Amino acid sequence: MLKRYIENFKKFRPLLTELVERDIKIKYRKSVLGVLWTLLNPLLMMVILAIVFSNLFKFDIENYPVYILSGQVIYNFFNESTTSAMSSIINNASLLKKVYIPKYMFVISRILSSIINMLASHCALLIVMIVMGCEMHWTMILFPIPAALLIVFCLGIGLILATLTVKFRDIMHLYGVFTTGLMYLTPVIYAMSLLPGWLSKIVMINPVTNYLMMYRDVMLNGCCFTLSGFFLGLAESAAALIIGLVLFAKKQDTFILNI
Amino acid sequence: MSDQLMVKVDNVSMQFSLPSEKVNSLKEYMIKAIKRQMHYEEFWALNNVSFEVRAGEAVGLIGLNGSGKSTMLKIVAGVMKPTKGSVQVFGSMAPLIELGAGFDFDLTARENVFLNGAILGHSRADMEQYYDDIVSFSELDRFMDSEVKNFSSGMISRLAFAIATIGQPQILIVDEVLSVGDFRFQQKCEERIRKMLDGGTTLLFVSHSIEQVKMLCDKVVWLEHGNMRAFGDAAVYCDEYANQ
After folding, report:
1. Residue ranges per domain, chain B?
2. What's the gap between Cα B33 and its chain centre?
3. Residue A25 burial (CB < 10 Å; 0-12/13-18/19+)?
4. Residue A61 C-alpha, separation from nearest chain B C-alpha, in angstroms
5. In angstroms, how far is CA B53 from the centroid of its own chain?
6. What's the topology of domain B1-10+50-92+169-244?
7. Is the CB of B123 less than 8 angstroms away from the CB of A29?
8. Where are the alpha helices (DSSP H) in chain B?
9. Quick check: B98 pLDDT over 80?
10. How far apart are the first and last CA of chain B?
11. pLDDT at B39
12. Chain B positions with Cβ closer than 8 Å to A
């Protein structure tokens, strides 16, 4: 059984490359700067947020632009990957009705496209850090660990959302509101130390907060993430993935009847 | 070799539940569920259909509109899972169910060749090998770098047919696609299918043109309202079907 799955995956692996390539090609076709936009976009967003929040609210955070940008790298990935994975099945309805393709391919391809964007914003962060003369820490090489945990977490959530959305389209509308709300429950633009105790507890429940703190630890603070943070992140991503896989596997044969 | 089993359809039934009204949102679902108003009409598109296809055979599916032909092919192709029964397919399969289904209209024809190939499970290296053949068969040399959205429907069908029929698949599934393009291209398609049959490809074929079925197939599966009315020699049942 498992062998059949693996063989099937191997047969369709080239499709992943093609789908990701298509996403990127379509996104930047006929734009003058092309793929450069993946780098420019987070930079411009950072400039705006940095100007607004350092003048308006006067947050006292060292290297505030870098702080914001690092928050965006993580939160935008979470937002973009789960949102696009959510609609991956229904957007490809016409194809799924006519050809046999392992359905998870579409979810994975959307996650992969988002990973490329995350890597671009990660590079943007490095550039800004160099320009602003931030200290470069050796712990930076550990960044793939929080990134990988977050990717697995988003894959799990993406599978869950994709499955639910096939049956209930409402989720698409609701989720946009939800992620906007969740952004304020993630320390993207503010520091944890500013929060009153009860609020910081709520913010800590948000799984994305933990991944973001791990990422900032290795990128900005020059220290390794805490072991408890690591295991919490591991448990949360494993749980999301398992629930996602089970739900998706159980429901995937009924997709065709509802799309 | 010749009596090797290629497709085994075993007691396949397919049920669709048609809600009397389609419920598409959570709110509606909740309201209906609470009021216990979820009415489903059961609809059996296929009822206990069984047949076997052996290597080298060409089997046609005939029947009126809504008799379950396309559902049957989709189940064989793996697009749908049957409610009851099982389908086993032994060998590589090329489905020509709806041409151009996998095209992205914003990509160029060249890019679509590789995308569509990947959808059918071919690697990039495979596709590069077949690329020239695809271009020459579809007669689109000059247009390979234009976006597919600018293509005419005939050009799209030609390209799609050329991609779907590369190589020598062991099983070819054809659903009503030979009616594409002008008559010259139709002939070309038929020729290509015939060549595959001569090379030992097994064919599953759906068409409303009983002439085409008679010409290409040795056996037919005759479906009527989801039930199998007959399974056997093409010449005999095609005449009976045409004369009913």
Report:
1. 1-10+50-92+169-244, 102-168
2. 37
3. middle
4. 43
5. 15
6. Rossmann fold (3.40.50)
7. no
8. 26-34, 69-77, 109-119, 124-138, 153-164, 183-198, 210-216, 234-243
9. no
10. 37
11. 65
12. 16-17, 24-27, 29, 74, 77-81, 95, 97-98, 101-102, 104, 106-107, 111, 114-115, 117-124
Residue B229 — φ and ψ, nearest 5°? -85, -35
**Residue A18 at interface with chain B, using a CB cutoff of 8 Å:** yes
The per-residue pLDDT for B1 is: 45
CB-based contact A83:A179 (threshold 8 Å): yes
* Neighbouring residues of A22: CB distance < 8 A, sequence distance ≥ 6: B104, B107, B111, B115
Strand, coil or helix: B19? strand
Reported as a single tens digit per residue, the pLDDT across B25-80 is 777 777 777 776 666 677 888 989 999 998 888 899 988 888 888 889 889 988 88
Chain A partners within 8 Å of B95 (Cβ)? 98-100
Q: What is the ipTM of this complex?
A: 0.80
Distance from CA of B239 to the nearest CA of A (A): 31
- CA-based nearest residue in chain A for residue B105: A26
Return the half-sphere exposure (C-beta side, CA atoms, 13 A cut-off) of residue B218. 11
Report the pLDDT value the prediction gives residue A254, as an integer from 0 to 100.
87
Instruction: Flag if B119 and A171 touch (Cβ within 8 Å).
Output: no
- Per CB-CB distance under 8 Å, the chain B contacts of A256 are 79-80
Query: What DSSP character marks residue B176?
Result: S
Question: What is the pLDDT at residue B19?
Answer: 64
Q: Is residue A36 over pLDDT 90?
A: no
pLDDT tens per residue across span B144-166: 999 999 998 888 888 988 888 88
Q: What does the alpha-carbon distance between residue A30 and residue A224 come to, in Å, rounded to a whole number?
A: 43
The H helix count followed by the E strand count for chain B is: 8, 9
The mean pLDDT value for B103-126 works out to 89
